[in-house]
Amino acid sequence: MNEQQFIPKKYSNTIDTGKFSWSSPSNIALVKYWGKKQDQLPENPSISFTLENCKTITTLSFSNRNLTSDFSFDIYLDNEKKDDFKPKIETFFKRIEVYLPFLKNYHFVIETTNTFPHSSGIASSASGMSALAMCLMSLEKQLNPEMTTSYFNQKASFLARLGSGSACRSVEGDLIVWGHHENIEGSTNLYGIKYPYEVHDIFKNYQDTILLVDKGEKQVSSTVGHNLMHNHPFASERFKQAHENLDELIQVLKNGDVNSFINIVESEALTLHAMMMTSLPYFILMKPNTLEIINKIWKFRNNTGLPISFTLDAGANVHVLYPEKHAAPILEFIKNELVAYCQNGHYICDKIGFGAKQL
Ligand code: PMV
After folding, report:
1. For a substitution probing ligand 1, which of 27, 32, 268 has the most ligand atoms within 8 Å of its CB?
2. Same domain, 63 and 127
3. 29 lies in a domain?
């Protein structure tokens, strides 16, 4: 398995103009990806729940033009032209051009919108890059109609990864593994795969209520954070631990052991932030209210025995995870005791989803 398989041979069809629309979700990692090599190749394998409600919807319109040496595109967010997004897309196009050699043959209009508020502190790069990758693959499928669905999804995930690492876990659902793990068949650093083993019913329909603690721009970007794992004093132990946690999760997902699930997922979240705090330079993305919420969750869990847990992304927001069958008392607790710690009382009710959809 290598990158070469994604370099197309000569296309059998031509197409002059058209447009495709896809919606693609965000995802939340259970075992975290933090630290990368060249070309967004991960230092360790990760696994995530695909989400359902936090999505990006992208329409890609294209028209044939005379080949020049530059890419040609305009990008709009919520109908507003966004020239400040152009460098990111330009870099993405440069990285994927060898895999999509038609890119310079077209002028593209990229129109995009998110279902979650723009300034929610929820990263739109996973959903945004995967939605764009899906649209580009729809165009490639017109040029090569024999393409199979499995190749389509693999290559979409592979391209999305080159836009933003974790975006490769947003193409399909409901549990996605990205990064090679010796006990997970088919797992690869190149793209995300559907988790291939048995999953207990308790983990189907898992709920994720996202508490928006801080909606501001984060002080340290993921790109900078990943790079600080180079020469990090705990890096090799951390990468080893991710392999071990994923190994343990295979059994846990099969036998429905929610307590072990909670231990792994919460430890992963705190380890991610511990890596940030022990980087040089060090930084903290949690806020006082993040800790208030975590302590309240632990207290509530101790008092009720309900399987509520939390995880964190590279930010201050808290993802509250729980099985659907316990949703009523847990939502009640969230509304009564946790929402007070959210900025303007804002939170988003999400749950496990099944990946990108063509519109
Ligand atoms: O995809 P990136 O480069 O934005 O990195 C995301 C990393 C985390 O969200 C912190 C963890 C993960 O596995 O999603």
Report:
1. 32
2. yes
3. yes
